[in-house]
Amino acid sequence: MSVDAKVSTVESPESIVAANKIINAVSRGDIITIHASCSVLYEGRAESTIAEGDRVVMIKPDGTVLVHGDEGYQPINWQASGSDVKAEIDGDGNLLIIGVDSEYLEVNCYAVYTVTLFDNTDKAELHVRGTEAEMHERILDDPQLVESGFHDLEHEKKFPFGRVDVFGYDSDGVPVIVEVKRRSANRDHVHQLYTYLKEYKERYSEDVRGVLVAPDCTDFIAEVLNAYDLGFVPLDPLDS
Amino acid sequence: MSVDAKVSTVESPESIVAANKIINAVSRGDIITIHASCSVLYEGRAESTIAEGDRVVMIKPDGTVLVHGDEGYQPINWQASGSDVKAEIDGDGNLLIIGVDSEYLEVNCYAVYTVTLFDNTDKAELHVRGTEAEMHERILDDPQLVESGFHDLEHEKKFPFGRVDVFGYDSDGVPVIVEVKRRSANRDHVHQLYTYLKEYKERYSEDVRGVLVAPDCTDFIAEVLNAYDLGFVPLDPLDS
DNA sequence: AGCTTAATATCGGGG
DNA sequence: CCCCGATGTTAAGCT
Predict the structure, then answer these.
(1) What is the model's pTM?
(2) Is B223 on the interface with A (CB under 8 A)?
(3) Level-2 CATH architecture, domain A3-118
(4) Residue A119: in which H helix or E strand, if any?
């Protein structure tokens, strides 16, 4: 394999070889992937330890360090981007991977199975559809989605009590506060909308209606909405 | 390298070789790490696409699929645990990694640089210190942390208006609602506590005090707390 | 720098 | 299964 290939892997390297490879790769800005048996120590906003086990360690050029186990979306431990990543050999001859910032992460490798260096290029941008921002846009483009006659919309209108997703007036000229959620409506959402209405009425001594827009809501939440005299409009984030 | 080693890596495999290795490794329950140039399609709660780029793909035995770029804690795309992971060859001879559950994730690999199979064992448990649960325990062990004379504590006491972190009585026998946060106090926390007090007074026609426990709070939040006549007790999640 | 809000949030616990 | 709340939440946008 040529020296300047995109990816180079060493299997079962000596600690000192692994450390040198990592140090060089960090300075080059590679993504580094390490398969190892390691324990992990974290000290920062909280503290954590985990004893030895087989894990995958990933070091990114922005200083992110991830330690992944065999389960779940979340890493067991991590260091946020911006950290200074070092590789050392400790007194027992083990490879230490250390990420230092305002917090401290130490990965103590008792056995290194592989070290892979990835001279990657990624210029592509992620495009996501079905966000709450997109739901806002759709309502602003077509106010009838909320209700017939809804007009004079304002987006992210600031009030002393908070920022309202969409503010406007119904066909009778009554102000309407619209709260948009991309997930199923829950009690917090209802509470947030109710609080807005209450504060609005207190401050402006004017009647106002509230509408919650979300993909769906349970029967229980529907009752709560009803009890508070709030409207609900189903809107699927992905319909368009 | 022996056949039953913990880790086996192939560099620049043909698509069909990569697919077969992945299929076998999935059935064995390995952690699979793939370095590749790929595009990604996601369809589920939202939809997303990202064009070709160099990324690290990780497949876990619980059905988690992660696609990591060169920046940040978060994967570019992922599939939650529980998905059915398949590897196929498409019409162009590219390796497709597909995770199917209620959602759909497709990783289209235009070039596969490495495939690493990790027959891992990890029996260790993560121990975390400095959580909110730990702060609760410390208060229950030593009520004086909140204030002198605080007594008859109840943990996670349920009320019609919500679950109170710690409920008890002050030295004068007045009920006290304690809300605990492991992060700096903010307006939401104050609002939550204030709402509890209000509901409590309305329902039980009895005076009640509120104390917010958090590592710190800004001057602004201190003013808000003061305006609502709420107490504040600084408590560092990591002091003990 | 601080604050606010969204996120394909994830994850765990309780009813 | 739904609901609720914590997370070392992370991340983006705005003041």
Answers:
(1) 0.96
(2) no
(3) Distorted Sandwich (2.70)
(4) none
| pLDDT tens digits, B159-178 | 988 999 999 999 999 999 99
In angstroms, the separation between the Cα of residue A224 and the nearest Cα of chain B is 13
Q: pLDDT tens for residues B100-135?
A: 999 999 999 999 999 999 999 999 999 999 999 999
A3 touches B: beta carbon within 8 Å? no
Strand positions, DSSP E, chain B:
7-11, 31-43, 47-59, 65-68, 77-79, 84-89, 95-100, 104-118, 126-129, 151-159, 162-169, 175-180, 209-214, 231-234
Residue B43: closest C-alpha in chain A: A129
Q: How confident is the model at residue B240 (pLDDT cuts 50, 70, 90)?
A: confident
- In this prediction, residue A2 has a pLDDT band, given cuts at 50, 70 and 90, of low
Question: Which CATH entry fits the domain spanning B132-234: 3.40.1350.10, 3.40.50.620, 3.90.550.10, 3.40.50.300?
Answer: 3.40.1350.10
d(CA B95, CA B118): 20
CB pairs A-B closer than 8 Å: 180
Q: Tell me the CA–C1' distance in angstroms for A94 and C3.
A: 43
